[in-house]
Structure formats: C-alpha cells, structure tokens
C-alpha cells in the first residue's frame, strides 16, 4: 500500500507573542483578554509593541499618548514612543 | 277614535238627548261588536240591528250617533256609499241591514216632510222596575251556570253583555261583581269535591286537575267576555278590586290549590315531581301536561317559591345520589359526558315546561351536586388517565369537557394544580431516566407540544394554564443538574450537523425554536453554552455544519434569548472561520505557497483560531512526516509575516486529511483524521504483509497512548479496516503489531474512516463539565465579594439567599459554603468575633 | 466612569488586599473617589514606629492622570513633605505614568521616608503652606533635589 496526503485541513490557534499571564501595564488585564473598553479579545483589540520592546493593548497606549502628560513617551521607560513595525498587525 | 272613547262620546250624547233605554241598548250593540272585533277572537252573529225597539225620532233628530247615522245615510243616499265603505273597512262585519227602524227612518221624512220636530223633556224621571236587578242577574246567573255546566246559553251573548252593562250603568256593579264571584266560588267548591274523589288515583289525578284547570280557563274566558263591561269600568275604576279573570284565579287558588283546601295542591305538586323524576330516569312523559300544570302554578302565583323550592330540593337530592353513585361506577370521561348530557336536559326542561327564572338556580344545583362536590375525586381518579390517553383527538375533547365543567364551578385552580403536577411528574420521569438519555430531548419536546396543544384546544388558551406549563417545566428540568442542558446542546448539534437533510428550512427553524423554549427553562445555561460551543467548534472545523444559514439563525436566536454577552464568543468563532477563508485566499495568491503547490502537492487549508473564542483543547503531540512539517512551516511563516506579534500553535487533534491510497486491489481515497493519516503514512512502502509493532508506530508518530489506541482501533477494528491487527481483537494493546490489509476493498472510491476521536469521548465530556464548574466558582466568588462589599455585614443565611438570587445557575449550598470559607481564608471576609454566623466584609 | 477606571481600581484594590506590601494597609476604600491607606515607618529608619495616613483622590481619568496624594492627620516631618500634607514627588506630577499604581506610589513614598537622614520640614514650608491651593496638583513643582 502507498498513501499520499492530497488535502489537509489543519487547525492552528494564535496567541499574542507575550509571556503567559502577562498583563497590560496600563489596564492590568492579561494580554489574552481585551482592553477594558473592548468586548472581545483577538483581532479587534490588538497589541502594540514599541521600539523599546514594551507592549500594551493598542487602545490603552493610544489613550495614554493622547494625554498631555504623556509627552509622547512610553509609560514604562518614558522614552519617546516609537512603534516596532515588525510586530505590527499586518492589515491584509 | 278608539272604541273606548267613542263609546264614551256616544254614551254622553245619548244621555243628554234622551234617556231612552232601548236606544241606548241599541247603541251598545254597536259597541259590543266593536270591542269584540278589537279583540279579534270572537265573531258574533248578533248585530245591533236586531235590537228590540227603535227610536226614529231621536235617530233622525240628532243624527250624531254614529251607528244610527251610518244606517241612515246608507239607505238614503247612494253617494255616501264611499263613506259607508270606509267605515266598513274599520268594522267589516258592520252591515246596515234594513229592518223596521230603517223603514221608519225612510218613511219619516217622506210622510211628514215639513213637520217640525220638537224635543221635550220627560215629565217624570224614568224609573227602573224594582226587580230589575234580580231579573237581570238571574239572566246572567243562568248563563254563567250554563257555561260552568257546558250547557247552551239560553240568552244571546249580546244581550248578556247589555245586561251586564246596564247593571253597571245603574250603579249595581259592586253587587254584580260580588254575585259573580260567589257564583264562581260555588262552582269551584263543587269541582273541588269532584277532584277529591280522585285524590288517591295517582295516575289520573294530574289529568283530572289539568282538565279542571283547563275548563276553568276556558269558562272564565267566556265569562270575562260577557262581563267585559264590568271589567272595563267598575274594576278599572275601583281600587282594591281585581279583574274578573284574576278573581277567578284567586278563587281557584283558594278553593282548590291552597294548602288549607286539602291535599290537592300537595298531591299535584308531588305528582309533577314524580313525573319529572320519571323523565330524568329516561321515561317519556306527557310534557304538555307538565307544561300546563306548572303554568297553572305560575298563574296562580304558587310556582315560586312553593313549587320551585320543592322542585329544586328534589333535583338536589336526585343528583346528589346520582353523582355519588356514578362517580365511583363509571370512568371519569364517561361521567363528564353524562354531566354534560344532564346539563343539556335540564336546560331543555326549563324551556319545555318550567319558568325561565328557574334556570339559574336549577343549573347551580346540578353544578353543585354533579361537579363541585366531586372535583377532587374526579381529578384524582381520572385526570392522569385522561392526560395519558393515546387517542389524541378524544382525550383533547375529554379534557376540554373537564375544563368547561370545572370552569362552571370555579375550580380551575384545582385543575391547574393537577395539570402542573402531571407535567412535573411526567417530565421528571423523562429527565431522571438515565437509560433514556438518547431520547430525552425528543421526549421533552413531545411533552411540551402535547401540553401546548391541550392548553390551546382543551383549556381555552387560558393564560394561567400556559403559565403552569412553563412553571412545571422549569421545576422538573432543573431537578437534574446539567444533564438536560448538555443533551439539549447535543440535540441542537444533531440538527445542525450534516446528514440531517430530511428537514427543510421551515422545519429546522421550527425545531430550533422549540428547543430554545426548553433551553429557556434551564438554569444552568453555562453548561449549555460550553457544550454548544464545543459542538459548534467541531461543526465548523470539521466541515460538518449542514448550513451556515442555520448556524447563524441559531446564533441570533441565542443572542435574542440571552443577550450579546452570551454569544459574543460564539460570534467570534464564526468570524475566525471567515477570516481564515480570506487569509487562505491571500495565501494561495502569494509566492510563498508556490513551492507548496508545485513540489509538495498538498492542498493545505488552515483555520486559524483566536484563543479566547474557542474551547480550550489540550495539546496533542504528533511527529509529522517531513513533507507535512515543511508544509506547516511554510504556512506558519507566511501567517506570522502578516500578523506580527503572534504565536501559532497547531491543534493536531482537529486536523483531518484526504489521502490518495493505492491498495493491491485498486486505488482509493480515504477521508481520515490527521492522526490516522500520520499512522497510515508509516505503512508506506512496506513489503506485502510486513508488520510493524505498536511501539514502532508510537515512537515514530509521537502520539500519546490513549490517542494512539483510539486511532489504531479505528483503523484496524472499525467498520472500514485498512489495517490488520495481530493478534485479532477489539482492543489495542502495546504488544500488538499491525499490517496493511492487502485484501482491502470496498465498493466506493472515497471512503470515510470513522475516527473515534471525532466522536465525543467521556473524558471530553468530563472536561467540559469541569471547566464550567471552575468558571462557576469564579462567578460565585465574584458575586459574594460584590454583595458583601455593598452590604458590609450579613448573616451567613442572608448572604447565601442573596447569592442564590443573583446567580444564573443553580448552585449547591454546600459549594457556596466552601467558597465563603475560601474567601475568609483569603481575608476578603471575616466572621464576627461574637456571632460567628455573621460575616463582615474586610475593606 | 470609564471601564478602564473601574476595572483598574478594582484590580488594584483586590491586589492590595490579597498581597499587601509590608507596612502599607488600605483602611478606607468604599468608593472609587478616594481611598485612605496607612503607611508605617520602616524599622531602622527615622520614622520607625510612626504611622501616617495617605489619602488618594482619583479623577475619572485615572490611570491616565495621576491621583492626588496627600498626607492627612499626622504629617511626617520630611524635607519633601509640607506641613499641609503636600508631597513633593515627581511621579505624582509630571513624571506620572499609567503603569504606576497606588501600590507603587505608596512604595515610592515609603522609600522616600526611609532614605531621609534629617527630619526637617522643607525650607520654604511656611511660605508654601500659606500660598498653596488645596490640591498639590495645582502647584508648579520643581524637582531639583533628588538626593534626599
């Protein structure tokens, strides 16, 4: 007998590339969950990485950057925020 | 001009003009005829023209008395015929007959055309003869007696009428009235004695009494006509005097139908009651007799209360006994039918011969004795049987009858109670029957349908009964924890899965709606959600869904029922499926997949799931053959290039493949799980009949023991056996070895090798349940803290009851206790140092 | 109130209760408007044995905006703490970040006290107390002395 795979239906689960149980420093919600203003996690509530490697819920960070007090700085290290584009959600 | 006022006018004119009695009498002759005509039931052969004497002078002189005038012009001048005819229209039998008076009228003017007519007053006031009253009365008396004795009346009725009128005009009415009453009384005394002779003849008494009554009525009718003038003048004008007819009734009642007059009344009543009893027993009786005599009672004013009371008492006792004996003798449906029949009969009885006023009290007696008294007995004895009855139409009718009858006596609450209890008992038997779980949902749906139709058809769509259905379902369906919720979810799965093609769109919608009603009753909605979600995941990922339209329809129903919070994750699952489709599209249009298509030649499709939406699957290790691993790597690389910041983990247990297989007996396509595929790939390029050991397979596939056992079993011991197990047997053991079945051949080209792994396993069930329980624990904790934070201080029992009211599932008190202890340990709460049953919130 | 505000404060409260830092305790947290915490002087420092009370007042923009933090009652004598309870600490004003929390602020103040070598009020205490507004956040702070 000889068999060959002709068609393959696979299933994969994606998660954010962050350590388990880690929470967003701003809202304290785990990255697996969504930010407090969203209802469902996943594509609708993306994470955002900075050049400084710090990561937040995108909604949380944008909210911070909009405040005057932020002066465009990363909440963690107060360095000027720059997006890490290699980790940005790629819009199809 | 009405005949009455015309009469008065005539009267006045005549009295003024002269006091000629005869003339007066003649005028009255006209009147009597008119009156009779007005009554329209008596035609007299007597006309006024036959009056004894004439009065030419007066008639000619005054010419104002209508009847004389009519006669006059009728004969003298043809041109007045029209007028005459006009009058004839009013009094059709009024025909002027030429006779002596008319001759006189005609001759008068001819013989003495110029003679003056002088009217002079009488010198003496005319006087009646002394014996006038006696003579006249005796004429009348003779007539009355003749009437009573069924003899011919010697005097003409016309004359009798005038006699009466004259007596009245001469103010002799009171004594005339008295004399007449006396005459009636005398007669009835005689009648009474005749009746008393029949007293002991039970059979004939009623007939005799009825005869006597009928005769009385007939005779009094005639007498009243003769004495009409008395009725019209004296009786009307004198207070305290009743009409001749009524007087007749009064005397009849006093002489014959009063208790003081002997037993006739009692015996008659008893006779009637007996007759009615006979009719109730099914004999046929003379209803005309009953009608006549009962209406005699009504006319005599002794129907109510004496007869009616007696009748109602008898009815009560009759139905009291009948109810008690029948209720134990015959089945409830037959009893109900009988009661309906009885009610109909009694209603007919009222219209046949009773006073209509008796209808309500009579109905009440029957209701009381046949229904109200036996409500509980009937329900206890027959309700469950009626509910169980297999003949649907019949039992719906019977229940409708029961409902109608109980509604009559305000006992629907009792019926509702039995109805609710029946549902609870039946439902609880279905729910708690561990051996019938496979049909539980179907059975519940059938029960629901049946109850609904009973409420709709038999119970008049009564809201209270519809509510009882809901209440009872809620009670019994939650008697058994979790299982019903799980089975309902599975039932839905079955309906939404491929292979359910027997149903059309409408049917499936209907079924889903019905199931949703059951779901509504369930307290543990989280259990349903967990199982539903797991089944939905399988349908979506293994392409087993019958239709996405149905899926979305069910989803929107759930959203409507439980709110968007309940379905947001389920919706997320659909979204993942959609996103994956789009992503696969872009994957196949990318350069990166070219290698896959041209070299590896595996048609890869991947569903990428968002972790939070889907059920959590335990990792299932698997060593992929290099080609497949490469294939997977290509996809992963592409995915991560498009989705930065993500990790991808493969769910091997959900993968499935289509294999092209070359067997010695021909080529086939095999639809298999990923595990099955990888195992089968191990057998590639082996020599004929070459075996490989269980351990070898395990080592080269990396599949965990349990999973591998299941997989090998499905390939070598299932319906379609691609492999041969050595030694043979149903269960796989680590010492077994396997070879390809070189004789493998089946009819079809594409073969589905049923994967046991795809079916639900016990552990999987257990797992789903446990996950829900864990989730519930969090919910209990959160609710406890929320309540205590608000209330600060609560007794243990208060806290538990408040918690139970807030939770969406049914929690065990013992579990809640454990959670409270745990919160005390974690210092959210503390016990009061003085009263340990009081809990305090620690802030 | 935004979901971020309530969720975040709830989480902080639970965290402070389950896992309280040494010498710090929540004494009043009935609302999300203001909390009170006690701060114990650390053994072996100038403030050993003393207990102070900190009041946190949260604006609806917390944690995007810093909370207002002052001492109440017994005010520690410290070169960066004015006698009206106002604290001169940069993370409370222009150096605030949403990743900071009630816990981290308390720990900063605790360490500020612990590192103090000389219990004396700020040099401009009298003038400041006379002119300062009720909220320290309305003061223009200049943070020149990071050494204490």
From TrEMBL, chain A:
Pathway: Protein modification; protein ubiquitination. One of its GO terms (molecular function) is cullin family protein binding. The keyword Transferase does not apply. InterPro entries: RING-box_E3_Ubiquitin_Ligase, RING-H2_APC11, Znf_RING, Znf_RING/FYVE/PHD. It comes from the Eukaryota. GO terms for cellular component: anaphase-promoting complex. Its main location: nucleus. One of its GO terms (biological process) is cell division. It is found in: Nucleus. Keywords: Cell cycle, Cell division, Metal-binding, Mitosis, Nucleus, Ubl conjugation pathway, Zinc, Zinc-finger. PANTHER family: RING BOX. Belongs to the RING-box family. This is Anaphase-promoting complex subunit 11. It comes from Rhizophagus irregularis (strain DAOM 181602 / DAOM 197198 / MUCL 43194).
Automatic annotation (TrEMBL), chain B:
Pathway: Protein modification; protein ubiquitination. Residues 1-35, 91-112 are annotated as: Disordered. Gene3D superfamilies: Cullin Repeats, Cullin, Chain C, Domain 2, Winged helix-like DNA-binding domain superfamily/Winged helix DNA-binding domain. It holds the Pfam family Cullin_Nedd8. Residues 483-716 form the Cullin family profile domain. One of its GO terms (cellular component) is nucleus. InterPro entries: Cullin, Cullin-like_AB, Cullin_CS, Cullin_homology, Cullin_homology_sf, Cullin_N, Cullin_neddylation_domain, Cullin_repeat-like_dom_sf. Belongs to the cullin family. This is Cullin-4. It comes from Rhizophagus irregularis (strain DAOM 181602 / DAOM 197198 / MUCL 43194) (Arbuscular mycorrhizal fungus).
From TrEMBL, chain C:
SMART domains: UBCc. InterPro entries: Ub_conjugating_enzyme, UBC, UBQ-conjugating_enzyme/RWD. CDD domains: UBCc_UBE2W. It holds the Pfam family UQ_con. Keywords: Ubl conjugation pathway. It comes from the Eukaryota. PROSITE patterns: UBC_2 (PS50127). This is UBC-like protein. It comes from Rhizophagus irregularis.
